[in-house]
Each structure stands twice: as C-alpha cells, then as structure tokens.
Recover the amino acids of this structure.
C-alpha cells in the first residue's frame, strides 16, 4: 500500500485528535470516577446521578472524534 | 403497561379488640401498602406493639446470636421446616433450651482458647529466658533483692558496672538480647535507669518454685497446650454437631420470629383511638374491590373499608394532597420477560408514579445494542447457552440480570452475526474470491481468513444472497465497511434519542398537560430535529458524504429556522442555557458511534488472533507452488488449537465487559436523561416473606378459617 505524505499527516492528525482528547477525558474522569465510587459506596441510590457525572467529560473525546472524522473524510 | 400501576387510597377502620385478626387479614391480602400515621392533633395516637412482640424480639435476638456463633449465614442451605412445627417449638421454649446448649459449648470453647493464649504467652517468655543459664526458681522469692528481666537492644553490662552490688546475666543476638539483672532493692531505680539507656523492656517472669530450666518448663507447657488443644478440637466438634443439628431450626425460627416481630409492630404504623384503629393504605386500583370484599368477609361487622381516591397522574393532584398522602408508591407494571430487566432500572432509581417506566425500552435496546457490538455467531452461541443456564439456576438479582442480558444479547448477536455481518469467531463466512485454497491466501492479510477458505467449500449462492453487501464482499465487514457502520450507528442514535425525547414529552403531557409539555419539552425536540437536519446538510456541504443533493441548501436554511424556533421555545424555560445545550446534541448523537467502534475493536482483535493462528502457527509446506497445511506436524497443530481457543476466549470475555457496559451506558446516559426522573417510592405491601418455612396442608386450612 502506498500513500503520500499528506494522507499520512491526515491520519496522524486524526489519531492525535482522538488520542489526546481521550487522554484529557481520562484525566477528568479519573477524579469524577473516584468520587463517584465513593458516593455509591456510601449510598447505592446515587448510582444514577454518579453515572451521569461520570460520563460528562466524555464530551471532550467526542469533540476529538469529530475533528478526526472531519480530518479523514473532509480533507 | 408503560406507567407504574394505578394506585387507590383506602381507609380501613375497625374495632381495636380485633386488631390482631385485622393484621393477619391485611397480611393475607399481599396488596396493602400502609401509609405510616404521623401523630397530629386529631386526638389519635399511634398504636402499641402486640403484647407478645417484645418476647418474640428477645427470642429473635437470641436466635441471631446463636446463628452468628454457629456460623449459620444467609446462604446456608437448610431444609424447609413447617410453620406450625416451628411455632410449637418456639412456644415450648426450645429457643431457650438450644441457647443454653449453644452457650455452654461456646463458653467452653472460649475458655479453652483463653487458656491456650495464656500458655502461649508464657511460652514466649520462657523461650527468651532459655538463653540465660538460670533455673526458674532463682527469678523470684527474694526479700532484699530486686530482679529485672527483659529485652535489651545493646549490652547493658558496662552501663551496670556503676551500680553497686549488681549481678547481670546477658545473652545478645545481633541487635536484640535478653538480660536478667539482680540488684539490691535500694539500687533498683539506678539499675533501671542504666538499663533504660540500653533499650530495656521489662518482661514478666512467671513464678516458679521448682528448680527447673526454662527448656524443661517449656516442655511442660507444650504438653499442657497439647492437652487443651485436644479439648478445643472436641469442643469445636461439638459446636459443629450443634450447628448441623440446629441449623434448620435456627433458620426457621429466625424467619418465623422476624415475621412475628414485623406483624407485631404494625400497630406502631397506624392510628388508634380508645376503641378503634384507623389504617390509611395504598392499594392497586384493580384490587380495591377484592381487598374490600375480603376484609369484610374475614372481619365481618368489625371493619369498615372506605375508598378515598384513585390518584391521577397529574402533578397538580399530588401537590394538592396532604403531605403524607402526597406520593403514591410505584409498582412496576411489566410482563414476565421485561421484569428481568427491572434490575437495570432500579440501579438508577425506581420510576415515579407519574412517569414512564423505562424498563421496556431497556429491554428492547440493551440486547439490541449488545448484539450490534458483538455481532458474531461464534461468540453468540456461548452467550445464549450461559444466559439460558444462568436464568434457569440463578436466583440472585445481580446474576439474573447479567444472565438476561447475555441471553437476549446473545440472540441479537447471533442474528446480527448471521444475517448482517456474516461472520463467526471474527471470520467472515464468505470471502474467497479467487477460489484458491492455500495458506498463501492468508498472506494477503488477516481479513482473507474466512470460513469457506478454512472448510474448503464454496457456499451456495442463495446463502451469500442472504447477506447484505456494502462495497463488495458478502456481509458487512466490521473493519472494511467502518464508515457505513459509523453512519448506521449515528442513525440508530438519532432514533434512540428521539424516542427518549418523545417519552419526555409524553411524561410531561401526563403530568402537566399539553401546553406546559410543549414549552418544557417541545423546544428540546424541535432543537434536536433542527440539529439533525443541520448536521445532515453540513455533511453534504463539507463532502463527508460524497453524493451531493438538490435538497442540501433548502434543508440547511430550514434547519436554521427550526433550530432558531427550538431555541426560542427552550429559552422560555431554560434561559441562556438553551444555546449552551446545542453542542450537547451533537455529543449525544456521536456518542452512539461507540457502537461501531466497539464492534470494530472486537473484530480487530479477532483478526489479529486469527492471523497469528492461520498465518503463523499452523505449519505449512510448499506443494506445487502453493502453501498448504502440514498435517504431519501434530505438536504445532495442537498448539494452534489451544491458542485459538484461548485467544478467542479473551475476545469473548472483553465482549461482555465492553459490549454490555457500553450498551447499558447508552440507556442510562443518553436515553434516560431525556425523560427519566425516578425517585419513586417502592410499593411495599404487607406480606410474609417465607423462604425457609412453609404451611403444611393442615395449617393452610387453619389460616383460611381465620
């Protein structure tokens, strides 16, 4: 398979977008997750609320995904 | 079916003298949720517990104590016992008899344990003294001499030279040692100060009059410990015997007494006056007439049951009601299969009386998403088998819910795997294009490992006709057709979210009426539609979807208008936040791309593993210019089979974790946040929970006569 440098850079950019955004999400979810587990241990009824807070930072990785998709399909 | 069961409020009034009979009658109905009475200024007070309750709770405490001592736990398997047997045994004072036996055995065991511990600590001291050349009798019995014995960290001999009339025995080993110092009573304090500088910790020496060396004393103690140990083993055996003898009795009495105590404390939840009792209760609407008739039949003229109201789903009614009648309990109204998914809903919260129970949506979409992500016949079959087996044997709610997801998810995974992706164990059914059955085929890459190539057959054309085709090849390739799968996932997401928004609208219509609902939820729906249209038009314009369309520009303009209208309506209730919510819509929709991404990750792993097995491990020889498998090399073939099983087990296990969790997450976060509030009160009718006890036929007749 041969590909020119431009395609390679696009692929690299897309990968970086998702990867770095994922890293950011991970760092944010780390704190939320720890607190959420603590809250659920004290009161299992908190599960629903904790779950929602837990996934809030996922928006960040979704933005990364959007950029990656745009990089691959639009450029 | 979507909403929790309709509830009606009744009031039961009767003569206090027949309260006991009334409580039995209420329990036999199994559909009366008592509303706790809160003492007010209406000249009513809460009742007093039944007279035998305190005795029963005392006995219950004893039984629980015995269960703890004997190690009878919740899951201990014991035969069921009959209720009337248990009752007669309790009345005959058997609980107290058994308790005296158990306590005697437990005391004996504890005494022995205590003795052995004491002897062991003495032995430890003696082991220290063993290092000194002094017999045991020399340590005590002096009038003018003080004896200081203990451990030291440095040799105290030099430090003690300054102390007058002092004799010191020391045995040092590396950093610790033991010292025995005999000193005149008057110089004791000086010696002690000197010793403290050497890290001295005093040890209590047991008194001994016989002239024995520590080693001999240790042998004596060992003998004594052995003797007690034997007795302890015997005591443990007798406790074990008591356990097997009385486990069933204890579990039975525990249950019976718990029920008795619970029934006995019912008067504490209701209102009584001098001669009568008043019970407020919620009853499922369709059971009101039956309940009324039953109670009147059982209690005759001594009871009066009045129907108060059937609570509507309007929030207005709830807000207008007296505080203790405000919240009716929620009784989920689901069929047999949907019931299995109630646990998933309960993890978040119980539905409110006035809102749609999301369980049925979870039942539909959770296995569907799981199937979409796994999508493989080979992995689906074990899922179905394990799920079915789990549903058959499991009683625990956690395990049942996992088994349910595996079973139904497995079925969907099979359907997707067979008719959509056309693959099993990460390999497509059909893929051989050039008709060459050789291992060199694999060199093209892992995706060319297919079932028709492995089996060396060509599937009939009607079979390949069953499978959908996107960009060539039979079946959807999780890796080859990823952009198609991503798009499909987004469309699934749009439908799923739309259902969520519609449920929100319906909830609001039920609770507040159409006009309120339009302003509260209509805006969200219009914005959502506008956003979907805008994204569709933008993808066309930006060329993400290659084919342009004449509709692109009109849709773009329309979407902006729709979005604008939606935001205006939303801003009435949410203000400025209405604009902030817009990117969230895209986030929500794109969140569904995980469906494709996880399917792809599974396929990617399976592909790599299959390539390792078929492309690298299976031995090959060159025959006539093409590679074929070398069947003579049995060791490598066996290795290939073991690796194949193990590696696919890895993918399969990960499928449960990622597939199951993400499918569930999409329900909780994307779907349920659109409409679900939860925080319902559980419908908890008065009823006896009997697991370990049962009514024999004779007793059944008796209870009917009550």
């Amino acid at each position: 398979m041969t590909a020119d440098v431009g395609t390679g850079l696009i692929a690299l950019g897309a990968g970086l977008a998702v990867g770095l955004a994922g890293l950011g999400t991970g760092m944010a979810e780390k704190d939320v997750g720890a607190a959420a587990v603590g809250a659920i241990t004290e009161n299992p009824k908190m599960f629903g609320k904790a779950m929602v807070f837990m996934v809030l930072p996922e928006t960040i990785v979704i933005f990364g995904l959007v950029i990656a998709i745009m990089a691959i399909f639009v450029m | 079916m979507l909403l929790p069961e309709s509830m009606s409020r009744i009031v039961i009034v009767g003569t206090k003298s027949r309260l006991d009979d009334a409580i039995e009658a209420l329990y036999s109905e199994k559909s009366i949720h008592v509303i706790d009475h809160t003492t007010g200024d209406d000249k009513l007070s809460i009742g007093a517990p039944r007279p035998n309750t305190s005795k029963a709770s005392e006995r219950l405490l004893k039984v629980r104590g015995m269960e703890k001592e004997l190690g009878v736990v919740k899951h201990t398997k014991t035969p069921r016992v009959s209720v009337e047997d248990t009752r007669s045994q309790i009345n005959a004072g058997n609980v107290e008899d058994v308790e005296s036996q158990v306590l005697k055995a437990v005391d004996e065991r504890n005494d022995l344990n205590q003795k052995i511990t004491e002897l062991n600590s003495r032995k430890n001291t003696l082991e220290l003294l063993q290092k000194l050349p002094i017999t045991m009798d020399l340590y005590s019995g002096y009038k003018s001499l003080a004896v200081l014995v203990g451990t030291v960290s440095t040799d105290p001999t030099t430090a003690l030279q300054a102390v007058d009339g002092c004799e010191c025995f020391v045995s040092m080993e590396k950093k610790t040692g033991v010292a025995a110092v005999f000193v005149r009573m008057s110089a004791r304090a000086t010696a002690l100060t000197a010793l403290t500088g050497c890290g001295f910790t005093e040890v209590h020496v047991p008194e001994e009059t016989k002239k024995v060396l520590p080693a001999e004393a240790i042998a004596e103690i060992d003998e004594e410990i052995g003797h007690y140990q034997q007795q302890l083993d015997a005591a443990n055996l007798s406790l074990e015997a008591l356990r097997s003898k009385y486990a069933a009795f204890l579990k039975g009495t525990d249950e019976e007494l718990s029920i008795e105590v619970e029934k006995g404390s019912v008067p504490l939840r209701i209102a009584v006056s001098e001669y009568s009792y008043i019970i407020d209760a919620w009853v499922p609407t369709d059971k009101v007439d039956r309940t009324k008739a039953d109670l009147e039949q059982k209690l005759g003229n001594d009871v009066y049951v009045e129907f108060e109201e059937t609570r509507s789903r309007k929030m207005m009614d709830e807000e207008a009601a007296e505080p203790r009648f405000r919240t009716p309990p929620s009784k989920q109204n689901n069929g047999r299969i949907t019931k299995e998914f109630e646990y998933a809903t309960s993890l978040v919260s119980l539905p409110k009386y006035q809102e749609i129970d999301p369980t049925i949506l979870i039942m539909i979409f959770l296995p569907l998403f799981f199937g979409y992500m796994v999508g493989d016949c080979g992995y689906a079959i074990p899922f179905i088998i394990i799920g079915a087996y789990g549903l058959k044997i499991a009683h625990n709610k956690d395990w049942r819910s996992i088994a349910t997801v595996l079973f139904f998810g497995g079925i969907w995974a099979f359907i997707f795997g067979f008719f959509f992706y056309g693959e099993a164990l990460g390999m497509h059914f059909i893929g051989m294009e050039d008709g060459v059955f050789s291992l060199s085929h694999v060199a093209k890459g892992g995706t060319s490992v297919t079932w028709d190539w492995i089996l060396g057959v060509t599937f009939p054309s009607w079979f390949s006709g069953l499978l959908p085709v996107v960009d060539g090849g039979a079946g959807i390739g999780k890796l080859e057709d990823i952009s198609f799968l991503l798009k499909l996932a987004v469309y699934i997401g749009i439908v799923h979210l739309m259902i969520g928004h519609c449920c929100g609208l319906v909830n609001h219509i039920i609770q507040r009426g159409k006009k309120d609902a339009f302003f509260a939820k209509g805006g969200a729906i219009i914005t959502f539609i506008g956003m979907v249209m805008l994204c569709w038009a933008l993808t066309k314009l930006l060329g993400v979807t290659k084919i342009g369309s004449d509709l692109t520009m009109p849709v773009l303009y329309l979407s902006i208008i729709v979005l604008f209208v939606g935001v205006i309506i939303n801003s009435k209730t949410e203000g400025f936040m209405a604009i902030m919510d817009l990117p969230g819509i895209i986030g929500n929709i794109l969140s569904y791309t995980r469906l494709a991404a996880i399917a792809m990750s599974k396929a990617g792993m399976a592909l790599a593993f299959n390539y390792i097995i078929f492309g690298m491990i299976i031995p090959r020889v060159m025959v006539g210019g093409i590679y074929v498998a070398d069947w003579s090399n049995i060791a490598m073939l066996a290795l290939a089979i073991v690796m194949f099983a193990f590696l696919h087990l890895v993918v399969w296990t990960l499928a449960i974790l990622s597939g199951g969790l993400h499918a569930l997450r999409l329900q909780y976060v994307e779907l349920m946040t659109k409409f679900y509030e939860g925080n319902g009160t559980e419908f908890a009718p008065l009823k006896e929970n009997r697991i370990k006890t049962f009514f024999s036929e004779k007793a059944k007749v008796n209870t009917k006569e009550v």
Residues 20-74 of chain A form one domain. The mean pLDDT of chain A is 84. Residues 5-42 of chain A form the longest helix (38 residues). The interface with chain B takes residues 45, 47-48, 51-52, 55, 58-59, 62-63, 65-66, 69-70, 73-74 of chain A (CB under 8 Å).
